[in-house]
Amino acid sequence: MSVLSCYACGRTVEAPAAPRCECGEPRWFETDPDALAALSWPDSLDARAWAFADLLPVDPPAAGVGAAAGGTPLVRTPTLDEYAGVRTFVKDEGLNPTGSFKDRGTAVGIELALAEGADAVGTVSHGNMAMSTAAGAAAAGLDCVVCVPADISAERLRNIARYEPRIVRVEGDYGRLYYDALEVGPERGVRFVNSDTPGRVAGQKTTALEALAQHRARTGAVPDAIVLPTSSGGHASGAYKALLELRAAGLLDEATTPRLYLVQAAACAPVAAAYRDGREDVTRVERGETVAYSIANPDPPSGTRALHGARETGGGAVAVEDEEILDAQRRLAAEAGLTVEASSATALAGARRLAADGELDRENSVVCVATGSGFKESVGAVAGGEVDAETVALDELGDRL
Ligand SMILES: *Cc1c(COP(=O)(O)O)cnc(C)c1O
Ligand SMILES: [Zn+2]
User: Fold this and answer.
1) Tens-place pLDDT, residues 106-151
2) Is 234 in the pocket of ligand 1 (CB under 6 A)?
């Protein structure tokens, strides 16, 4: 039997149940206390994200794309230390099957749907979560409905359509759709796996669990901080839950718990604004344009929980400008060989900003979570348009190199 609980008011309920508590805040899965008591740091993480399967509400899938989720490398990037002002590590989530950490949450969400006997899953997304959910459903033999905004770009639509889900363009308030889908989905037999539904958050806590275990295996200690691009707050909620569980298991204590920092694009930064103003509640903001479109949720459903988690770990939230994001994205590629999408580059830009503000320093070991691959964006967006390459005749090459 699985139990869902509310971090805010403590109420619990047996699963399956609505993803949100009576108090309005999101629920998450309680983790088996016996599994926590038995937890130890793994020596090796060769066995993909399911290394932490005992802390999840489902058994690992035996086959399919869900079995291949997670297990991404933690890359030490000394060539970025000077720029960032900290000792940098990059958790490369772009190496997941559909190019983002969403595959971790999708894998758990799909297994839950199968366990409940569902025929169809759905999601509300026009980006990575849509691709991930459609791919996971395809591999599991489930129907999939993806609700996208009516004005979605052709490029993004093609990226989702390759997995052949049913795609519904929805006209109207896209923020409200998140709530409406969760309400009408069950009536229509569609299990929605939205950005912060409990199964997705459970799966997505493995990013932080893995990153800490990998850092510890490499250096003998966990990192000082985790810097995470944040939109809905689902991934950040998972990271916070991971830290709570490692505390409960006795593998971290107050002094060793890494600080969780959330990064947003300045043009759409409801969590960072609440942090800056000393507020507990994250409230809706006007959505401005930003290159970091994967993290531009103006009304994040798990924003308040994510901010609570960041504060509880001694971290915080910060906003960075588009120029800082693009500069960080360029350096990740040109100075560390890593191709990340703009939204993911906010992690490095955020670490740099936090170091400049004195929140982090050169002695600090920091995991920047590169949440998604840059390979699915058109190259123009990455290289900035003009490419500087000279033309040389073959028999002149020797003189011109
Ligand atoms: C979804 C996504 C995020 C934001 O994650 P949330 O759980 O919505 O906060 C960040 N980066 C990328 C690349 C994403 O796809
Ligand atoms: Zn509650």
Assistant:
1) 999 999 999 999 999 999 998 999 999 999 999 999 999 999 988 8
2) yes
Residues 353 and 297 placed together within one structural domain of the fold: yes
Q: Using CA atoms, how far apart are residues 64 and 69, in angstroms rounded to an integer? A: 10
Question: Do 193 and 203 have their domain in common?
Answer: no
Ligand 1 pocket member 302 (CB < 6 A): no
Q: Which ligand ends up closest to the CA of 4?
A: 2
Whether this model's pTM surpasses 0.90: yes
Per-residue model confidence (pLDDT) at position 50: 87
Cα(392) to ligand 2 centroid in Å equals: 67
Kindly tell me the sign of the dihedral angle through the C-alpha atoms of 320, 324, 326, 329. Answer: negative
User: Which band of pLDDT confidence, cut at 50, 70 and 90, is reported for residue 207?
Assistant: very high
Coil/strand/helix, residue 259? strand
Both 192 and 203 in one domain: the answer is no
The reply to whether ligand 1 has any atom less than 6 angstroms from the CB of 200 is no
Protein residue with least CA distance to atom 1, ligand 1: 294
d(CA 383, ligand 1 centre) in Å: 22
Give the single-character DSSP code of 341: -
Report whether residue 371 contacts ligand 1, using a CB cutoff of 6 Å: yes
Q: What is the mean pLDDT of residues 229-252?
A: 98
Domain that holds residue 347: 65-97+199-376
Residues 216 and 336 placed together within one structural domain of the fold: yes
